[in-house]
Specification:
alpha+beta, elongated, 6 strands, 3-stranded antiparallel beta sheet, 31% strand, 2 domains, 2 helices
């Protein structure tokens, strides 16, 4: 099967320079034509600091912060809403530098 593919100018120039790979997706506009969309990537990921929590973790960089929690509903003696409150307080104390 042959597909006519439209590439952005920057991707085409990158391929001509010798960059062997460009990752992205193809959005078909018809059964035989498509547009190539490049996946965005961070160029220089900044250093991250991590802190483990009982049900997840918090990570922080100079650009953003991330709070990840995972609570099973059938965990004995655990109320998900209370875990969310308690661990977000712990995470905010860590971020503000007043960790208890």
């Amino acid at each position: 099967m042959t597909i006519k593919l439209q590439l952005p100018d920057a991707v085409y120039a990158s391929l001509l320079k010798g960059n062997a790979r460009v990752q992205g997706t193809i959005a078909l506009v018809s059964p035989r034509e498509g547009n190539f969309n490049v996946h965005s990537r961070k160029r220089n990921p900044s250093a991250r600091e991590f802190r483990k929590l009982p049900h997840g973790r918090v990570s922080m960089s100079s650009e953003n912060l991330r709070l990840t929690l995972s609570v099973d509903f059938d965990e004995h003696g655990i109320h998900p809403a209370q875990v969310l409150i308690d661990e977000s307080i712990t995470a905010s104390q860590y971020i503000m530098g007043t960790e208890l």
